[in-house]
Amino acid sequence: MSSSVESHQAKMIGELRVFIKKVLSDPTIAVKSVDIARKYKSQTDSDELIAREISANTTIRIPETWSDADKMFLEILHEVLDDEDALY
Questions:
Q1: How far apart are CA 70 and CA 68, in angstroms?
Q2: Using H for helix, E for strand and C for coil, what is the string for 1-18?
Q3: DSSP assignment of 56-71
Q4: Reduced to 3 states, what is the DSSP secondary structure of residue 38?
Q5: What angle (nearest 5°) sits at the alpha carbon of residue 16, between those of residues 14 and 18?
Q6: What is the mean pLDDT of each run of 10 residues along the chain (88 residues)?
Q7: What does the angle CA 8 – CA 11 – CA 15 come to, to the nearest 5 degrees?
Q8: pLDDT value for 1
Q9: Cα 43 to chain centroid, rounded
Q10: What local confidence, expressed as pLDDT, does residue 86 receive?
Q11: CB pairs under 8 A, 24+ apart, for 31-40?
């Protein structure tokens, strides 16, 4: 594996570790994030709206230029909503 790939993976793992710590220290983050995603899921620019509102209303900060970890978080939110829809 090349060192740039390893470096990229290490950075992503570091970002995910920080995120997981925040979620574990404030369990309302997960609920707020899903509620926000639910609010915007059907809009064209949903990811942008979700990222902005999560950044404004939680300790999670999603910058204007998304990292792979930010993108993964937004994808997972959509998967949670898809799973939720499948239950009903």
A1: 5
A2: CCHHHHHHHHHHHHHHHH
A3: HHSS----SS--HHHH
A4: helix
A5: 70
A6: 83 90 92 96 95 96 91 94 84
A7: 140
A8: 53
A9: 17
A10: 82
A11: 32/57, 32/58, 33/58, 33/60, 33/77, 34/77, 34/80, 34/81, 37/77, 37/78, 37/80, 37/81, 38/81, 38/84
pTM for the model: 0.83
Q: How far apart are CA 43 and CA 37, in angstroms?
A: 10
Task: Specify the pLDDT at position 85.
Answer: 83
Amino acid at 64: E
How confident is the model at residue 68, as a pLDDT? 87
Residue 37 has a pLDDT of: 97
